[in-house]
Amino acid sequence: MNRLLTASIDRFGPVQNDVRDSLSDCSQSVLQVPAGQAIVEIAAPSRFRVLARGMAVRQHVLADGGRQILGFATPGDLLDLSGLFTGVDHEVRALGDCEIRQTTTREVSTLIRRHPNLLAALCRAVMTEARLQRNWMVGLGRRTAVARTANLFCEIYARQKVVALAHDGRCHFPALQSDIADALGLSAVHTHRILRTLKMTGLATLHGGQLTILDWNGLVALAEFDPACFRPLSDAAAVAAARLKPPTQAQA
Q: What is the CATH number of domain 144-223?
């Protein structure tokens, strides 16, 4: 059963039982991707690629080699939603060694045509991604460099805590200073100064691929971090109905 795929989509549902059955029955291959290698190429169609292990970056690379990182992907994320109908407009690259689960483009198309409930969940997933992008846009345009770095650290920690990969203020974050610079529109030198400032003020450190939050409340205040921005959009009515539904005989 494709539990990870079902769980990844169900966050934006809940999806109906027939959708769960179809997701469980579809084929799924496992791909091991080394650090630095492309996971999703530009114009690639969606294959419901789910990040099972590791971290990845969404990015645009300009003709002169300049790079803008659009976001970071953490385990459980669907990597290619923007390729559902038109092909992905950016590339996704492994930040460290990654494990990917993916199905076929034909099965993706069949599932979407067959299940309107699935399509609705995927639309909410796309809207959630758009909300994350708006938060990044606000950061690039209006937050100070140290505040946007703090916001990034809060995001990385909070998203991994949801999937039980962050504990006691620590989580895996194999980003180099150049990655952070390309994500936040900074120079490598400025990024180094900011990381040193966050460490000296007792807020957070990044060393050896590990992010350590020393003062969560202080970091949140500096970043003006709103965790609601990162919660998956879901069908509120369906969630309420599911909570009110009496348990089945097996569950009782």
A: 1.10.10.10
